[in-house]
Every structure is written in structure tokens, then in C-alpha cells.
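Lab meeting minutes (informal)
Scribe: AK
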Amino acid sequence: MMRSLWTAASGMTAQQTNVDVISHNLANVNTTAFKKERLEFQSLLYQTMRRATMDQATMVQGPTNLQVGLGVRPIATSRVFEMGNLERTDNQFDFAINGPGFFMVQTDLDTVAYSRDGNFRLSPMEGGGLMLVTSEGLPILGIDGEFIEFGEELNILTMAVSDDGTILFTSPEGEMVDEGLQIAMVQFPNVQGLEAIGRNLFLATAASGEAMLESDGETTVTSRLMQGMLESSNVNLAEEMVRLIVAQRAYEVNSRVIQASDEMLQQANQLRR
């Protein structure tokens, strides 16, 4: 069987996966704080037909190897964490992170996830008071790892948040009062190691390293929290469309290689003495 059949088939499979990644980017062009992905490829094994070795009879060194590659495969999806545009919403509970930080989100009793989606809401608590949550109702965590809760005595309409996430309220006397609440922002040694779990959330892994609190001074660069703004998706429509065309043409070329190989085999089968 001709190698080109299987080699081209691996190329078609890889380009199909590439189109899947591009379509995911395009589908999330309006998703808050979405980070686009790029598929990475790796060549498969090579079949060595002749090595560049010394000819013992003539003592002449062969200059090159004779090798034939056996195709390609997808190896990884790298996520581009460059910032999207900051869009003003003037919503008191919308927040954008200007910098490399992430919010901390409690997904269940034992799991903390991380997100750059600052589209927050207020959720009533049992016994009175309000809690800061995501648009799905997941609690946002403060720097002490606890939920950010507001007592009934606080006037939410006067809430303001400083660049480092400190929450302030205006007293009846017109003074800014710090109630000891601060929205946590964290960073990671290797953001490419984060595991995306959907819903604009990421999980820390051994590859990403442990989360480092910016408020503890564990990071060299600090982020700024922008109230009344949201970070848009960093997907570039023009760039994704160009990548889609390239992937489509690559898929088409590989399919033509299979057709050409099939015609060559057909001609070989029709040989007569």
C-alpha cells in the first residue's frame, strides 16, 4: 500500500481538528474575556531508507539521509492570553482585570476555579444580606479565601472598588469606609498549563503551578481592577477567517493526494504484459 494514502489521511484528520478549534474561537467571539486557541502540529515517525554513513569500500561519507515522513498529528492547543479590549458598561458590578490576574471562583465545596470574566451579580443569602457571585451564581472569593458578603446595614448603591480590589462604601457622612472586603486576584507561573473546564473557568494543574495572590506580594507585576468595565473576547475575526481558509485548502490538497494515489494504484493494477 502506498505511504501517501495514510500520510494524506493523517493530514486530513489534523486539518479537521484545526477547523474544530477555529470554529470554537469564532463561536466565542462575543464571550466575555474569552481567550482564543491555536492548534499545534507535530510530524509523525520517519521511515529511514538509507542513513548518511561512511561507505567502507570507498571511504566516502554519505552527505544526507534518505527518509520518508509518515504524516502529521495534532499535539496541543495553546491558548493566547493576551488581553481583549476593555468595554465600558457603567454597571456597578462589572469588573475587568487590566493585567495578568484571575478572579477566584468557588465551584463546589472543594474546588476553586479561576476566571477573567468579571460579569458579577448579587445573590441573597439565608438570614439576610447579599453575596457577590458570577452570572451563574458561583461565589467570588476574597483574599482570605472566604465569600464576599455584604450585611444588610451596607448601602450597596454606594459601593466602589479600588484598583487592588478593595471594596469601599460611602458612609452617611460622605466618607469612604473600608469594611475589610477585597476581591482576590491571582496569577500563575505558567498560564498555558491551566485546564479549561468551560463556563469561562480554568482549573490549576501541576503544569500551571499554584495560584499566587497578588495581595501577598508574590507577583512581580500587579493587575488593576476596573469597575464598570468588561474585557471582551480576544478573537480577531479577520485572522480566524484567514486561518479557516488555509485549513480548508490544506484539507482539500490532502484529499487530492489520496485521489492521486488511488489513480496511481489503479494504473498499476491495469498493467498488461
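Next up, CB showed the second protein from the same session:
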Amino acid sequence: MVMDGQGGGVGRSLVEYLHERYPEAELVAVGTNATATSNMMKGGTVLGATGENAVVYNSSRVDAIVGPMGIVMANAMMGEVTPRMAEAVASGDVPVLLIPMSRCNAQVMGVANKKLGEYVREVGERLAGLAGMG
């Protein structure tokens, strides 16, 4: 599951990369709003859902969750990530791979300042390792 909010730009970058690298994978784009979902779906996935219930429902049915750091922070992305969404993502029994973003008013110490594309590739490599493909 790729999750994003706002305009869905980070999520779209993830979907595009993952769709190209793993065309057989079933990617689910879940946005906090319809714009984010629509933008992510343009990246190559055919499955998309929007809103709090979609996040909660899909979080427990996927193999991994990827997205910007704010998806595990209540009220992140200018309030788009509800406490229930953040709890569903953070409390699941699946790996959650987060891309650090400074817009969330949270900084992770020890994290290198990389370009988005570098983080997207790293997510792809880690997912391959989790799936036993790397």
C-alpha cells in the first residue's frame, strides 16, 4: 500500500518506481484526499481508495505500507492524517517504510538529507528484501 496526502506527489513517485520495478506487484494507492489518490493512480496502479476508512481497512490487508513520514503522525499534512489513520498505519502487523519529510514538523536524527528519488529507490530495495526478491 502506498499512502499519501496533499497532492500525492511523494506517493506518485513511489507508485511509478514500484510499478516499473515490480510490474507483477499489486499496488494499492490510498490517499487522504481524492486529489492524492488520483495523482498516485496516474503513476501506474489500478487500485485506489480515499479517506479514513480506506486507510484503516487497507492497512490490515496489505504486505507493507510505504509513504511519507507524516502517515504515522496524527494531524500531519495540515490535518489530513486523522488520529485513526495514523494509528491504523503504525499499529499494523506489516512493515511500514517511511520517507522523511521536513514538512511534518518532525525531524529524524541521523537521517541523511537525500533527494526524493534516492529515498524512493531505497524503499524499492527494502521491499525487495522483505519479499525475498533482493
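CB comment: The first helix runs from residue 9 to 21.
No objections, moving on.
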